[in-house]
Amino acid sequence: MYPSRWRSSTLSVYILLLSLLLVAGCGSSGGNDKQASVTPTAPPLPSPTAISGPGQQTLDTMAQKLNNAKTLHGIFKLTSSSQAFNGNVETELWKTAPDKSRSEVKQSTFSQVSTGSVSVSDGQQIWQYDPAKKIVYTGKVSHDANTPDQQNQGIAGSGGGQNQSLLNIIQSIFDNSIGTLRSSSVTVDGHNTSDVHVVPRSNGDSGTASNFNYKGEIYIDNQTQLPVKVDLDISSLGKITVTIPKLDVNPAIDNKLYTFTPPAGTKTRPLEEASGNQNTGKLTLAQAQKQAGYHLLSIPGQEGEYTLQGVAALGTPGLQTYTLNYMKGNTAFTIAEGKPLADLPARGNQTSLRGTNGTSSSNNGQTTLSWTEKGVGYRITGAITADQALEIAKLLS
């Protein structure tokens, strides 16, 4: 995902939409969703200068609740109003941490996603059903022990990570925004909610750096402390609205949902052949380099203690993120890189490297070092120290 930066207008909208649609789909279909009604009108907006207070506390509580969830079932309705993309899609999602998921497209007016598209993973196998082509793409999940998706115990995944699903984007906003309470009593589709205005944290706020500029409202159910609606105006991109008519945290989910039987009359093809599939399989560095169309940083071959195990491409062809999987002795780590990762929000300790600024953070024994360089975002992740991650970053060429 992403040939320029978040500020490149048309393609950035396309990329964001793909990120939010939860499945990589093809073809077209029809359908419409009404946006959630909001009453009453919120009072005049205060200037969000502090990162404490009831609005911030509400966001932090939300983030913690999602991160601590083991299962989730929700319905997400995305509406985009921009010159490049104007339409909507409704997706139903089931997730069981850390790696089981099922998403079904219920309605779509976007040509990139077909109504009836299904994506299922049982943690070992992936199925992606394209009803327009009557093809099921399937393949094994590539397990890399220290990737964020495998290690994260939260249901949403780490914000701004490799798996850029709708829930990841929402979680990233919760984790990396300044929240200001506009009203503690706003009715949204029958829910009594709090309206929290959000903007990105600046470089000086808790070590967060972001060029992903947005402003908007998060409507949070006062009883469940879960989101009901996310309404954002993203700089140079347009308006994105996500209404969430159903969101259950920690429900009982039948494991049978994480299997898939191809419908009669469909063909089964290898996952690598899927147009727009989320994991295009393992590649050699040379293959990935040719596919990317720009230089991929890697550890030079003369650094013999490091062994490249393989490269995986994630995302729509032409717009991928590439993950280089390395071993050093018994220690595994990954280097994720790509234009989709450029300038995404990140919270942690600021550090200087490679002529720019990066962010280092640790969670559950995993260290992540992230930075943007020449329009490409990079993330080094593994059971390593921050100093080791910096040393690895210095080796890249």
TrEMBL record:
InterPro entries: LolA/LolB/LppX, Sporulation_related
Region (Disordered) residue spans: 32-51, 346-368
Matching SUPFAM superfamilies: Prokaryotic lipoproteins and lipoprotein localization factors
Polar residues bias locations: 348-368
Signal peptide: none
Protein's name according to its UniProt entry: DUF4367 domain-containing protein
Source organism (scientific name): Dictyobacter alpinus
